[in-house]
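From the pipeline queue, job 12 of 40. The input is one protein chain; the requested action is below.

Action: predict structure.
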Amino acid sequence: MDFDLLRRLCQTPGIAGHEDRVLNLAASELRPLVDEMSTDAMGNVIGVKKGKGGLRVMVSAHADEIGFLVKHIDDKGFLRLQPVGGWDARNMMSQRVAVQCRDGQPRVGALQIAAKPIHLLEPGEVKPPKIEEYFVDLGLPADQVKATVDIGDMVTMDRAFVDNDDTVMSKAMDDRASVFVLIEAMRQIGETNAEIVAVISTQEEVGLRGAKTAAFDVKPDIAIGLDVTLAIDIPGSPPENAVTKLGAGTAIKVFDSSMVSHPKVVRRLRDLAEQHQIPHQLEILPRGGTDGGAMQLSRGGAPAATISIPTRYIHTPNEMCAKSDIEATVNLLARFLEDTGAQDFRFRLAER
């Protein structure tokens, strides 16, 4: 698989509402694989691979990453931030960030906390950080900062993509890894009767917004969300809270706080994984949602599930995935799309 594409996707900045560069990159890869391509008012990229009169299946992976907007520039040139997406303040300490400035050139700054350094703190003064205490230091005079940075400019983590042979690590694996999976699965699929609507959605991190509007227009018969999920198989967490394990295969979602996956869709995904010897695991995520939840509730609803990539350290600059899990996710999605239409997922009343 072309893991250099995954690198390029992860390194391209794009928070909710500012996904343009990511969407253009992904669309350039998806365009040769579909019969039609369009966008909508939310910026979703929608590629259609025509079927042979079968069901319409919508698959959605979101383009946006978590990040920040510049909300204030003080008299000394320090930037204050508005989080866009779910941040844990503990994971922001002493990182580097890229401010996407009006001239198109990113400025790299230090993400620091407004507090005395550890050398000057008394034991009782050490406290957990709060998001509102963080600022960005661009190391420039205030007049130069104000000449190049605007309120509302996008700020993302500045971290390189790392390929460790068996694993990959980067900011924005959530959810560029799934955009990568969608593109690779579309390359791989063979004949299918289904009409496949491949969507690269926007603004998932702030409320599943893009998938909601796209699904309303697409009106899918079946919906599959693609996302990362927690792999908490690390020190400090008991095994029963792991959710998934890195390297144990793709994850078939049973439940999260945005959806209860359709049992028949879950069963079919499991059957296909077993039939094609695709490593897989079942996922129950206590909190968090995916595009699958939005698509499931659109219009009159659709049988829906989510296929997830186990990922350590989600919503940090060090999101880590196993290449084997990514490949398993591509394979399962491709097999499901080839198979779509072979099963009837609708609920039917029992005959008397």
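Job complete. The helical segments are 3-11, 20-30, 142-148, 173-188, 209-218, 263-275, 291-296, 323-339.
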